[in-house]
Amino acid sequence: MSKQSTLTSIDVGTTKICTTVADVSDGGDIRVTGVGVTPSRGLHKGLVVNINEAKEAIRESVRKAEQASDFKVESAYVGVTGRHINSLNNRGVVAITRNDRLVRRDDLKRVLQCAQSVNKIPSDRKLLHVIPRGYVIDGQMGVKNPLGMHGFRLDVETHVITAAVTSVQNLVKCIRGIGIDIDDLILEPLASSEAILTEDEKQVGVILADIGGGTTDIAVFKEGSIWHTSILPVAGYQLTRDISVGLGLPFDVAEEMKKRYGSVMPVYESKVEPPPTITANGHGVSYQDLCDILRARVEEIIRLILLEMPNSGYETLVPAGLVLTGGSANLSGVDALGRDILQLPVRVGVPAKMYGIADTLRDPAYATSVGLLLWGAKYQGMQRWRSHRFRVSLRRLVFRIRKLFR
Ligand SMILES: Nc1ncnc2c1ncn2[C@@H]1O[C@H](COP(=O)(O)OP(=O)(O)OP(=O)(O)O)[C@@H](O)[C@H]1O
Ligand SMILES: [Mg+2]
Prior knowledge:
- It is built from twelve helices and 19 strands.
- The protein has helices spanning 51-69, 105-117, 165-177, 188-196, 199-204, 236-247, 251-261, 266-269, 287-307, 314-317, 334-342, 367-405, and strands spanning 4-12, 16-25, 30-39, 43-44, 47-48, 75-80, 86-95, 125-137, 140-143, 153-164, 181-187, 206-211, 216-222, 225-232, 277-280, 283-286, 322-325, 346-348, 355-356.
- Helix 1 packs across helix 3 (165-177), helix 4 (188-196) crosses helix 12 and helix 9 (287-307) packs across helix 11 (334-342).
- Magnesium ion binds next to loops.
């Protein structure tokens, strides 16, 4: 029989805060029972800049999700982003000294610890993830799961991600401040890729770019493992600001124009002649000007994403191309523009791996929210379920002992 545990994710984005409650089975099926979305406050480019405002916005989002799901949120998987994130690929080596030379769980722990300690993490950085990318046993490369194999020497290739302690502390303070524990802090592009990428794409080599409101979160996969992660401090907010400044419009009108009419490939897309002038809230601007401004900034973002790749030969590193997600991937024509620049496949990724009351979540803007749940289900959901079972059994035992004495 499939076991279920209820998980919660909180995506504290620059534009919106989204709390999602879902029942997750040990097979990874996600049945969404409640979603709470509120506009963000107290955040800038993915970072908390006003703790009280951010805390209240998170509280509101959690309250909405609790009401919808009729579930009291006690802990959650939380996404982390921002310019303060650093990542590097590292290596660790240990000897298997036991007589049978069998690789056990302990050896995996030891070799991962060794990979962390190669470059000492300074006290102002917090270790977020140490992800094994692949193992080598006695020189034999490409081992994905070395448990149960025999060898003298075990090497591991890891991807290590660290964050600024202070930025993480501010986020944690907001969440704990409303009485919610943190199950795990997860780098947002890693979460998004759980919801958006296929195993094939990860195997062949692919770039995922989550273009949100304040940041563009990048994750590159190769041979089924993470290869590179990075956060760029430019996204949808800059697109709106360019329109606002360029066309002399108030920010909210520029935002509406962008969402309602914006396109980055107007020439290719429009089968009918586009209107020369478009209007919103009593303001009229040239359609061509709007699209030209958007196109210039999106082109810049795509080129910045490409700069994260090695100088030459990105075509061989990521033949599966670029997968765009995040709210700004809703912009009409981004995939066509991406294909023009990269000369590789480019698609827009929408989260799909869930059922229940999940309609709101079927939008690129919710890739991180859904991905956080999938990450939780994959790595810790069942661990939490087991510890929950353990706590329940312990409580029952204490109850029986008390009854005995009474
Ligand atoms: N149809 C649309 N066309 C163009 N842009 C859009 C559209 N819908 C949403 N956006 C933009 O998407 C952005 C919000 O995306 P998202 O919800 O992914 O951001 P976020 O998660 O809150 O922020 P971040 O991840 O950067 O901290 C906003 O800038 C918004 O203008
Ligand atoms: Mg986001």
